[in-house]
User: Fold this.
Amino acid sequence: MRSFFRKRRGQDETIPPLETSSIDIPPYTVAPAPPLRPAETQRPLSSGARPPTPMPEISEPPRPRFRHAPPEPTSVPAEELPRFAFSVTHGMRPATVSGIEPEVAKVLREAFTPTRPKREVNALFVGRLGTIRRIISAIEEERAHVVLYGDRGRGKTSLGNAVEQIAAQAGYLPTKLTCSAELGFEEMFRTLLKRVPSGYLGADSGGYAGTRNFGTADERLPPGSFTVTQLVDLLDEISGTHVLMMLDEYDRLQNEDVKNKLAELIKNLSDRGCQATLFIIGVAESVDQLLGKHPSIQRSLVAVHLPPMSDREIERIILSGSEMAGLTFSAEARRIIVGLSKGLPYYAQLLSLHAARTAVARGSRDVERADMADAVRRCTEEAERALLEIYHRAVGPDEGRVADILYLAAQAEYDTYGSFTPADLQAVRPAQGERMPSMDVIDATLDHLVDGQAPVLERVILPGGYRLRFRNQMMRQIILLIQAPKRGLV
Assistant:
């Protein structure tokens, strides 16, 4: 089939385009076909084909009379229409993009995945072993429901996918749902239970020990709306397995009634000792921010905060991806990526991907410091527009003292929640030729960044004082990406 299309394509390319006639067609007159050119009438014939009958000469029809001559069409150079580079039909080999062979580009996309979470626990899944152990312990030993929370870009969904696979290997029955703003309580659990065979309901077959029923558990729910008690009664019948119900991106839910029903469900499931566990994942600074304040469920929950990755884990991401892609990242390139990522695997993946593409495009499999300049530029261009606007509003057109203090804040040591103290800024090593601002200047500028017209920071009140943190934790990486070329970091 492929050779057929190649043959047809080759023949088509040898046919010169037909010349369009320049005649003007009078009203209600059918345009005659233009005469064929000699090159076309003398093309070699295939075997067994009869020569075509020559067409008679056709005289040009008279031109209509115009009072004024029609304007000549303006010649505008045609722009090339953008096209997908990778074909998915007929197994055709796609074209190269940006000087990178398609096969190489595909390997790079699989090695570094900033835009999608890891789906498999393999060599590309790096770190978070302590967090995974804590989640397993909560489910297996404490029989508690789990809430995994933290800031964006830390790899919560990838970690959830890892727990899902590990649980399935141990005989659990994971069922997962990604939440949305308009999701209702009934729709949520009908979707989750649709993936649970009804044979695991003890009332039917004693937990798959007897006659199997090939329906699904959601069919046992009442039609229309149902209560939390009715749902718990159904989940209490589960035997022969343990259902792990995973709710990802729970922070997108806006319906308070759904959150209240979920809190009631957690409490009732724990009181009954059902063979069903809820695993909730979402972006939040605290459990209360994610689930709301429900003191009655605190004892039934294990809250697991996902901190930023360590520098060692970020470097392992780079090394694992480069090994899969057959590339080598120099020690200097790795140091720059680790320093700019600040514990966020999203930016480690994104910087590594752009740097690898730049190196391959110039014909090298060694990613050097020079490749990082283009990677930083690309990441800055692709950054969230709202964050860029907040940064430029905060620093103003001059980018003077405020930009310097923001840079120090982005480089300062921080805890697992991303907070730091004003004194931590003085511990940052200034660049060559730069002077460290006084503590008075630092304090005054930080107050402006908290209470000014363009607030970037917020205070975290603690016993005996306070700490500071960025309102959006990704602002730390935005600051470093913008200022890296100006301060000679790349």
Notes: The mean pLDDT is 81. The radius of gyration is 32 Å. Residues 418 and 469 are 6 Å apart (CA to CA). Residues 129-305 form a domain with the Rossmann fold fold (CATH 3.40.50.300).
